[in-house]
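Appendix B, example 12.
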Amino acid sequence: MIKQRQQRPVVDPRLIQPILRTGGAYYLLVALLAAVVAAGLYVWIRQIRLGLAVTGMNTPVYWGLYITNFVFFIGVSRERHDFGTSATSGQRMLKPVQRVVIGSLLMS
């Protein structure tokens, strides 16, 4: 038996019109965001090459804050992932908890 080729779904041109026709403001925003990414990469590479001393964290208190923020935001991202997947998969047992969690995540 010969398999028939599946036809690609037809996309309504009105849906992709904003992607195909962009103005000057779009390219300005892309250039601005690219500059932010480039600056972030520069300081990150500098921090890797010269060490964390370039951040000005010379006392143990600052190191504690640095590590605490790192661990906190990893936990926040994990929590968002867990409850985001449970919300999209339709699990009803977590519905009452989701509002509280989403509210606390938005405040963090």
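The helical segments are 13-20, 24-50, 60-88, 95-107. The radius of gyration is 23 Å.
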